[in-house]
Recover the amino acids of this structure.
């Protein structure tokens, strides 16, 4: 089940905790992976760990020209892009009343606009191949909202609406578009929380623990597989029951 | 019939699965040949590859009929 041998996957934000694990698991299922991110060092380290079938594709997603170039670079390196995982995301938290245009725009640009552009950039190849998998990593916050994260929540909710619309348009061509919405996951981002914050969060999670990057990656592998071909336009909420949507 | 028209016709026939004699000068891809809007995008992609040209989005929107396509490609290539 879920064999990805012969498939080429581009993963953005592969230098981060969740992105790296997504790349690892796709690779373990047999896929060739294109590791994209802003910091080259962790990408090279991950490539060294994975060995064959891994390519480093540095890209700063806040640079529109670099975003435009990435699908082409990925297709040149791997031969095609059959699976696209839009995992990269940034936060610029602030109270809504204090949020600057710059804070709003930068988060929307990286999280939502780059997702749009990358989906568009890989679509031609997927249409021709009559096969494609797009998995957009959203967030629980996109569905529930979160104080201090109006920009981030808007970008993550936007990804879901965009995924559904694109899913409609390309379903007849064998291309599925889905989202995965993680809850609280053990990453560098959540390591920064203090104990009080952590215990506050735990009280809201029926599972009584944070999720792991591997649990997000497993959902991505499933959505990327041939077996999930009839599943499109949906969002998998992987959050330990924190929000049952 | 010119070479360009033959090649365009071949793509249309293959892609839309229509009879060759239905692909006339004024045949509209959507109204006469049963294409949906995504088919027209794919046809333009196929024309771009066949003729090694780039068809910008605003030009692609004006390619509604077989004749439009042949005319555009002759001018572009």
């Amino acid at each position: 089940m879920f064999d990805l041998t012969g498939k080429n996957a581009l993963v953005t934000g592969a230098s981060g905790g969740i992105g790296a694990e997504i790349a690892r698991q796709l690779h373990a299922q047999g896929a060739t992976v294109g590791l994209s991110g802003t910091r080259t060092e962790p990408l090279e380290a991950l490539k060294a760990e994975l060995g064959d079938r891994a390519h480093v594709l540095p890209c700063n997603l806040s640079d529109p020209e670099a975003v435009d170039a990435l699908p082409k670079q990925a297709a040149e390196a791997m031969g095609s892009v059959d699976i696209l995982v839009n995992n990269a995301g940034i936060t610029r938290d602030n109270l809504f009343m204090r949020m600057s245009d710059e804070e709003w725009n930068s988060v929307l640009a990286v999280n939502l606009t780059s997702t749009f552009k990358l989906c568009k950039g890989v679509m031609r190849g997927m249409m021709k191949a009559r096969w494609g998998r797009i998995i957009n990593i959203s967030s629980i916050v996109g569905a529930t909202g979160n104080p201090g994260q109006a920009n981030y929540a808007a970008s993550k909710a936007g990804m879901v609406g965009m995924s559904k619309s694109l899913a409609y348009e390309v379903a007849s061509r064998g291309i599925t578009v889905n989202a995965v919405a993680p809850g609280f996951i053990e990453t560098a981002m959540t390591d920064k929380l203090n104990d009080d914050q952590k215990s506050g969060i735990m009280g809201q999670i029926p599972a009584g623990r944070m999720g792991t990057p591997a649990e997000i990656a497993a959902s991505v592998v499933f959505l990327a597989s041939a077996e999930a071909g009839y599943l499109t336009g949906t969002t998998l909420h992987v959050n330990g029951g924190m929000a049952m949507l | 019939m010119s070479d360009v028209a033959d090649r365009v016709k071949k793509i249309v026939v293959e892609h839309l699965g229509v009879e060759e004699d239905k692909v006339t000068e004024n045949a509209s891809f959507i109204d006469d040949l049963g294409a949906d809007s995504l088919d027209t995008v794919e046809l333009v992609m196929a024309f771009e590859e066949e003729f090694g040209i780039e068809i910008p989005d605003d030009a692609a929107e004006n390619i509604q009929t077989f004749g439009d396509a042949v005319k555009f490609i002759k001018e572009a290539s």
